[in-house]
Amino acid sequence: MKDLHAHSHLAEVSQQNTTRLAASLLITLAFVFVEGTAGIWSNSLALLTDAAHNFTDVLALALSWHAITLAMRPANARRTYGYHRAGILIALVNSTTLALIACGIYYEAYHRFITPPQVDAQILTTVAAIAFVVNLGTALLIRRGSEHDLNMRSAFVHLAGDAASTFAAILAGIGITLTGWQWLDPLVSVLIGALILGNAWSIIRETINILLEGTPRDVDLDDIVRDLQRVNGVNDVHDLHVWSITQSMRSLSAHIATDDISISASAPIQREINELLFHQYGIAHATLQFECAECESSLLYCDLETANHHAD
């Protein structure tokens, strides 16, 4: 019953996310043409930079939308975990494009520092103000759900980065109007690039950890072992693995050493362990192997290569 309710809730959340992403995509796509035209007209790198970033947002939102629709497909014989990892792959792609965009911004800004072109500060300020409203609105539209979904978070970072960059472009336009310093335009672009690069690295690091089956960063395995050993009937724990399918979907496998008891007698132990893992660590899928005699009990983390040789 709990699993059925969880799947139903997941489907509802996914449907809401696809609707928000679709709305954000259409709004952002319409504004790309407006901002790109204004950037060419005013000769502003800040506006052209933001228009390019907005266009990558369109691609990022489209990929994120597709990843969510894939994740809603049921598991099958070829994809026993379903398609949930599609969102992680898309998050990696989106964050990598963010890093590449930042490098492109640095390259163009370098040349503009050497030879600053004339920038129409009035157009820069006006269009940037409109862009800020659009970007902030679309970012807030998909913010809900991004805390526990790396795919949604990568899309949110794209849009939030745009909101910050357009706000900086407003400041650049005001600064050029007051001082005439044309180098403020590429300077703002450099600051935008630094913001984009920092957010991109954060997502890349987390997606790589998930794809490498790393232990979730907020999970302490020592705490898990101590808590499991406190469960009545558990003598020891070894061959422990904890990994993530997605940012919010976690799995665990472990060997649980107990006394020589029947399968029915071990059921209450398994039930208590599952409740403990779910409520304290957010682990909803646990595979437990009960043993009455410990084999290599000192080996808490299994050496898969050695185990494979033993199997051969």
Helix content: 55-70%
Strand-pairing-aware structural class: mainly alpha
Total number of helices = 9
How much of the sequence lies in strands comes to 5-15%
Number of domains: 2
CA-based shape: elongated
> Order of strands across the biggest sheet?
1-2-3
**What is the CATH domain class of the largest domain?**
Mainly Alpha
- Give start-end ranges of low-pLDDT stretches: 1-9, 306-312
**Rg over C-alpha atoms, rounded to the nearest angstrom:** 25 Å
Chain-averaged pLDDT: 78
Task: Name the helix and strand elements from N-terminus to C-terminus, one letter apiece.
Answer: HHHHHHHEEHEH
The third-level CATH topology of the largest domain is: Alpha-lytic protease prodomain-like
For the sheet with most strands, the description reads:
3 strands, mixed
CATH architecture of the largest domain: Up-down Bundle
